[in-house]
Amino acid sequence: MRDEWFIRGNVPMTKCEVRAVAIAKLELRPDSILYDVGAGTGSVSIEAALQMRKGRVYAVERNEEAVDLILANKKKFHGEQVTVIHGSAPESLVSLPAPTHVFLGGSGGKMEPVIKLVLEKNPSVRIVANVIALESLCRILSLTKALGLSAEVVSVWVARGERKGNCHLMKGQNPVYIISMGGADQWEER
Amino acid sequence: MRDEWFIRGNVPMTKCEVRAVAIAKLELRPDSILYDVGAGTGSVSIEAALQMRKGRVYAVERNEEAVDLILANKKKFHGEQVTVIHGSAPESLVSLPAPTHVFLGGSGGKMEPVIKLVLEKNPSVRIVANVIALESLCRILSLTKALGLSAEVVSVWVARGERKGNCHLMKGQNPVYIISMGGADQWEER
Amino acid sequence: MRDEWFIRGNVPMTKCEVRAVAIAKLELRPDSILYDVGAGTGSVSIEAALQMRKGRVYAVERNEEAVDLILANKKKFHGEQVTVIHGSAPESLVSLPAPTHVFLGGSGGKMEPVIKLVLEKNPSVRIVANVIALESLCRILSLTKALGLSAEVVSVWVARGERKGNCHLMKGQNPVYIISMGGADQWEER
Amino acid sequence: MRDEWFIRGNVPMTKCEVRAVAIAKLELRPDSILYDVGAGTGSVSIEAALQMRKGRVYAVERNEEAVDLILANKKKFHGEQVTVIHGSAPESLVSLPAPTHVFLGGSGGKMEPVIKLVLEKNPSVRIVANVIALESLCRILSLTKALGLSAEVVSVWVARGERKGNCHLMKGQNPVYIISMGGADQWEER
Fold it and tell me: Which of A130, B180, C158, D79 could disulfide-pair with D74, CB 3.0 to 4.6 Å?
């Protein structure tokens, strides 16, 4: 989905290409239960919901302006499967149904307690985290080692051609690290 | 979907991350009609099919070994929506139903006649092409200018962490250019 | 050399890392004669000059503000080997001594006549061009084929860690294509 | 300098473009004293030496096959300024003259004691380290914080066009992290 399709405001947003890779790494199934922690504009929640026939998405966000954007985007894209939760992680996650999948888009300092909590709720949960700070990358790698989890790390770097006159100037975006762990190793029938 | 889930043989395959971006750029709808031209292992056909409830995919491939792989993957993933066509483009496309979406994964020399043909069949078709040769990139940019089409170009570069002992060594993959053109500018209700 | 060491104004400047690669690709020798065409702030001219004991650099620039910057940088870095020429290429190059090396940093539309002229002056000249527009890349590839020259193309993508609090956020710069052609194939004794 | 100019054997080698950036980050002066720790084929030692009129390079390498390559390259390129030392770091560095610059190309596990030792020898030494493992990157970032040093981190990603028929296929190399710290903030007259 194009970035400009979403109602955005001033809230930072995972860009189209990185969002596509992160959602692919989630390996959602038609009936998955996804937590989108630090949901921002809700773009990951919405795009994930549209790929699931019967799944549910819990979009957790503490910033009030962002919560309004998620609600607006939910309405625009008919994202009935998305439940918007105004609150902080991990506290707000405690009472939710156990997740099969978790996306961490920007909860920098709270990654550790969130990962621990969702693993308690479902030891075979699939977790995907996007980070751009090297220190967050290092912290999450340490944490996965401490927890005995095997993590896959990919770095995704996108440049977009920007029209200038008759030319395409390639504009580099920020490289994003996408860390994935847990979940099923095999393809499961649907 | 993970690359290792697909049955592969020796046929080159669009890698997981790039496949995810290319499919996102297609902007498929639940009832789209997609041509996957130069379908290779069929990984794009399969992953696209699994995202559409009622759509159809025509996977066109001239290499016989690759056709067998597509059929095997179709079976493994229950891709009933995928029709496998053993033949060359653009000839094999002539008699097919008009496409709403076209993916060009590797038909180097034939891009020009394929693009012209599918535009005749559906002037508002959405076309996404992946290229890795600079000369193919240049040819497709020239063609879009000659045809008066506005093309978006993104370059996607992925590095994957490879486990070595206790470390992740980042291994760079080949950068891929993804060119998109045509289709609807607005999100359409489903 | 660090970007912030140079006196800069509002003139665009080849960044430190890309400048280092471009100068390495020039394969300068202690007594080379370098044209820096579209010299901008003069950063390539200065850094190249400081690597040559007896060489000469002709920094050609048509923009007056940029010419003043080159002169200021020449003074700051004691770049006595640099001759600053206020004028347009290829006209301004006609009367200069034949070059052994040519750097094209930004002369978009004029690349073709400049390359033809310097090849006339010295058929074994080494030429390095930096481009960021895809269309410039395509044009220079076509030109090298038409002239029967073998070109090396590298794409260089740099992200710089930007301090934010206690973290390094990786900020992607624009990818640059560096095209090199001509010159000696073997290392020559000095 | 081109990679193929060096005598190489089976020893891993910092590639041309990354070598150029790393040497630029060293900010060598005509009379610098450089330690090249884990010198491999000696390509950094040689290229650095050729840029200094009166400097000295100590190429430290524990692998015997690599030591022979450094000696062969020293001979080929007339690198009289390079002293080759067969031994391990940090032990082999103890008796050497204090360095003004240190390059760490591959001493994974030994980075910490090496950095501590060279800082003792010269508190204002300039240190540049190339790493490709994320865990090494994390360790060096932690170390610089513990030592109160401000580190610059850049990630450099290079793709090289490989000729195939009439085309250039872009082949991605591995991204390298280049970490720089210490040294003079201002350009110093020569």
Answer: D79
